[in-house]
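Quick one:
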Amino acid sequence: MKELPNADRFQIEAAEGWLMLGNPVEANEELEKISPKYRRHPAALSMRWQVYATAEWWEAAWIVSQALCEALPNSAEAWICQANSVRKYKGTWEALELLRSVHRKFYEHPVVLYNLACYAAQVGRFEDAGKWLADSFRAEDGSALKVAAVYDPDLRPLWEKVGDARLFELHAETE
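Output:
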């Protein structure tokens, strides 16, 4: 992969700065200054995806995420970007199917597994959600996902289902 010239790297850094200031429109303007030759560089695509996702321009984010996955087919992060875009642009089922299609490639990547769990919980596939969530915890080096899972609204349907199932078990034990 070619190294970015300093001028183009500067534009990416400037775009990142605008994003930190909460201004994706200005960030996008900075990315437009990148040399046409380097606009498909993974660093430029990644920043462009972040800009589009921040602005909630989901169709554009989806298109850029496809180019990012073509440029970096072995990057779990690229596929996570695409799945997030697909979820917002096309729907949760489609995002689940996308990540399932690359699951074998990233079967030990904790964030891929976590996202699979979130999408499965959202579409009512609770057994799959529980399995992928447990797998994500085993694959993670640390506990950040465990903490996130407690508060993640995407997993709320799973927690409600598990809670309901436990309530029924407790009720049956007391009868």
